[in-house]
Fold each of these.
Amino acid sequence: MTYLVQFPKGYDEDTNRLWPMVVYLHGIGESGDEVEKVLRFGPPRLMEEGSNLPCIIVSPQLPKGHLWIRETSAVLGVMDEVIKSDRVDKLRVCATGNSLGAFGAIALAAQEPERFASLVPICGGVDYLESLRLRDVPIRAYHGEKDPIIPVEESRRLVRLVNGIGGKAQLITYPDLGHNCWDRAYNDPALWDWILAQKR
């Protein structure tokens, strides 16, 4: 699995500092074998445009015709490679993604919840068995209320299931947005403040 790693400003200046890591899973439109496609949206795009996000952004690329929910072990392998080679704070790892990638981020965190400090699915959803494994992973979900592709009820169900077993999940909805609510969500400083505040 190919992937892109982007480093925060100041990464090379303090060689003793550990940095939070955000694992971003893209939507279906960025699948393929050209890793530059992952720069179209989300955290990779913000970093490419010069945003000063104080974290390491890791963005795997899904091969065409594949699904993230079946590639979680490969993504965990990517994470292991980055943790081994770069200065990652393993207590501050966030899984996030939009659309197809949101389902993947949920499946990723549900597979090994002990590795994640937070989960940010944007227009995603969850099944009951996954929700049982997410009780100890703080979740901040986003969804457009006019989404015609993945209904907002999917995110409401996620929050309801996780909170129903004693978890910590919240949902931010956008009444005026459809499927692409990720541009607004990822550009919200409050989202990044929340991610950076989470620690296992």
Note: Residues 118 and 195 are 7 Å apart (CA to CA).
Amino acid sequence: MAVPGDASLVLRPAGTADLPALGRLGAALIRIHHDFDPLRFLAPPDEAEAGYAWFLGTQMQDADACVFVAEQDGDVVGYVYGGLEPMSWRELREAAGFIHDVVVADTHRGRGIGEALVQRASDWLREHGAPRVLLWTAQRNVAAQRLFLRLGFRATMIEMTREL
């Protein structure tokens, strides 16, 4: 699927050949979040790139999950990972789709790629029966929050953390 306004940008399902790029982007996601709040978010482990590539590879095999990449001129410049979640008594919600990750390389931000990835995952989730889409965003990630608000998301929960 081409992105309107940028014929060189293609959104497509991730494949095994994409795993090294997905690992780099996923490791960057770990580092960004750890920088936001090192007490809340996972410290980047040794070989974070390989670990995240392995993890996303497992999710690509899950029929209830989707991983799409944004590719420009043969390079993966972003990805989105989402999945179907069952009804949850613990979270007091019906079944829903959940966008777990959306990442765009620093050099490609501000071009609508994140928006296109979120929309592509949302379409997949709707096609697979999700009546709504949820996601989490770090408190300090104001740019992502603005994007999600523009896309019609609304704030419904606030996570709070206390160290023991």
Note: DSSP finds four helices and six strands in the chain.
Amino acid sequence: MRFLIDRCAGSTIAEWLRQEGHDVLEARSLGPDPGDERLLLIALEQSRVVVTIDSDFGTIIFRDGASHSGLVRLPDVPANQRIDKMRVVFERHAADLAAGAIVTVRGDRIRVSF
């Protein structure tokens, strides 16, 4: 799977995804922060799922109707738990992510939207 990791999600999760065999682009490698709308467009153009802790991406998608290739939101997940939560997302919702779902993890709950 192809991912774009937002700066706030951290490089640890990016490295883990690479180790798992995924194609990972980190937003920090793109230079100065281009903003959430631009990151969402880059992800769409490259068929990447955005991974973030930022709620702004959901707002841009749901309120503004922006197109996307999928989104994983980890808004309340501490850095030391993100990899474990992503494992659960893959185990239960890999097909949903591949289909462009928006997956939001809050505590032990996972919500999937299209």
Note: The beta strands are 2-5, 23-26, 49-52, 71-73, 102-106, 109-113.
Amino acid sequence: MSFNKITIVGYLGRDPELRYTPQGTAVCNMSIATTEKRRDARGETEEHTIWFRVTAWGRQAELAAEYLAKGRQVYVEGRLRREEYTDREGVQRVSLEVNASDIQFLGQRAEPAERAEENGQVDEETENEKASKPVSSRNGKRPTSKRAPAKEAAGIEDDDVPF
């Protein structure tokens, strides 16, 4: 028996790209960066960043494209694949590709109007989108993810996580 599973907690390097296959299946591509800090031989701290190309499918892809944006923190589980390719300059490169099986949105959720303001764009359509979203009947707030991020629930800080 063999097993291929990876867990990533990182930040989006650009906005997700959503497209549809000819059969109508949603596909979302994202770039996610993970960074770890290490001490070099001189004792100085240096950062090492690893980039992953993540692909989500179906409803999960649509949700990722709708709610995620560049800079947002995300948790991803999936299967890892290493791909080799030659870039435009003729240099042999390697990419790490993840076929996502589970995606959890971490951190605060930005409303469409807030995302537009962050990008320097404010228009009536984003306000209309905000107004047309379903509202929870319990507290008048918009529904969010069913699971709270584990680190927020347990009071764990980023520095406490060993990866």
Note: Residues 58-67 form the longest helix (10 residues).
